[in-house]
Design a protein that fits this description.
By secondary structure, this protein is of the alpha/beta class. The chain contains 8 helices and 6 strands, in the order βααβαβαβαβαβαα. InterPro entries: Hydrolase_YcaC-like, Isochorismatase-like_dom.
Length: about 210
């Protein structure tokens, strides 16, 4: 892991990439509560939109007919963001995706993607190799098992990506309750925490299944 320190992720320097939040991909997660993953990704999108952080949204396999589009709850928060559909597992191997990231002019990339081991890890590592600083939102992503998710988090951290969580990232983006950016946090934190608490009180997990 690089010894270079990563400074605070200032909102003015960041963009947000949301990768493969599709029903067919969410269906691969069994040992984490999918509702909380969706909740965190949705509020990240909502907060980024509210404070002017550019968002890149990508899907896999829609044009090929094997997956549906981004789930409607996240899509609703990003009405003006065009989905970039790919055939590649690694979004960083898709020219349109990379061009969209470059077009934001931001060098700090906050990534969230499912599943953790593929849709998040591959582009995060490649983005860092191309000179971007990458943070990933650990509680907005998931994988088939916690073991796979946790192992992928270790790989990401070893490669130099910074792990963050949804609420901590939102706080990092506004940082001062007197900041104009804090108003959006005041509006979002109460409904977010209410939904989060309800899910935590009554967790739900899907039954593992094969592909046939």
């Amino acid at each position: 892991m690089s010894g270079k320190k990563q400074p605070i992720y200032d909102a003015s320097e960041c963009m947000l990439a949301l990768i493969d939040y599709q029903d067919g991909v969410l269906d691969l997660i069994f040992e984490q509560d999918r509702r909380i993953i969706e909740l965190n990704a949705r509020y990240l999108a909502k907060f980024a939109q509210a404070i002017g952080i550019p968002v890149v949204l990508s899907t896999v396999g829609v044009e090929m007919g094997v997956n549906g589009p981004t789930i409607s709850t996240i899509r609703k928060e990003l009405p003006d963001v065009e989905e970039i559909d790919r055939s590649q597992m690694n979004a960083w191997e898709d020219a349109a995706f990379v061009d969209a990231v470059k077009a934001t002019g931001r060098k700090k990339v906050v990534m969230a993607g499912i599943v953790t081991s593929v849709c998040l890890t591959f582009p995060a590592i490649d983005a860092m190799a191309d000179g971007y600083q990458v943070a990933f939102v650990a509680d907005a992503v998931g994988d088939a098992t916690k073991e796979i998710h946790d192992t992928s988090v270790l790989r990401l951290v070893q490669a130099g990506a910074a792990p963050v969580t949804t609420i901590a990232l939102m706080a990092e983006w506004f940082r001062d309750w007197k900041s104009p950016l804090a108003e959006a946090a005041r509006e979002l934190w109460v409904p977010y925490k209410e939904e989060w608490a309800a899910y935590k009180r009554d967790p739900q997990f899907a039954e593992p299944k094969g592909l046939v």
